[in-house]
Amino acid sequence: QVQLVESGGGLVQPGGSLRLSCAASGSMFSINAMGWYRQAPGKQRELVALIASGGSTDYQDSVKGRFTISRDGAKNTVYLQMNRLKPEDTAVYFCYAEIQAKSYDSGTTAYWGQGTQVTVSS
User: Fold this and answer.
1) Which of 1, 53, 70, 83 has its CA 20 to 30 A from that of 13?
2) Which residues are CB-neighbours of 31 under 8 A, at least 6 positions away?
């Protein structure tokens, strides 16, 4: 079974920075993509950033230029560097991974972390 373990959330003032980390562990053949979603109170979960195995990235428009997603393939870890944080960034951030379990089975499974709280407030 694959597990995603997140860290790095917390309370920060507007304009500050945080770095989220998520490590995938367990039995897997390959990780096709990893990323971050977030969910604020009363709102639906939304994509923040995604990075594919080839290195291509996608960002939500509201975080472009402020957030940077990266990946350490050797450690099966994805990072989200969040700079110039705004109160609107306050949410629970969830790590996401799309994983192929076996080389002979091309099907993939989506995995989610437990979520880490990010609060931006003065």
Assistant:
1) 70
2) 24, 53, 76, 97, 98, 99, 100
Give CA–CA dist 55/12, Å, rounded.
Answer: 29
pLDDT reported for residue 1: 86
Length of the chain in terms of residues written = 122
Q: What is the pLDDT of residues 91-107, one digit of tens each?
A: 999 999 999 999 999 99
Q: pLDDT, tens digit, for every residue of 8-41?
A: 999 999 999 999 999 999 999 999 999 999 999 9
**Distance (Å, rounded) from C-alpha 114 to C-alpha 92?**
9
Nearest alpha-carbon partner for 122 in 8, 9, 15: 15
Q: What is the pLDDT of residue 73?
A: 86
- Neighbouring CB atoms inside 10 A of 64's CB total 11
Residues 6+ apart with CB under 8 A from 56: none
Contact call for residues 6 and 22 (beta carbons, < 8 A): yes
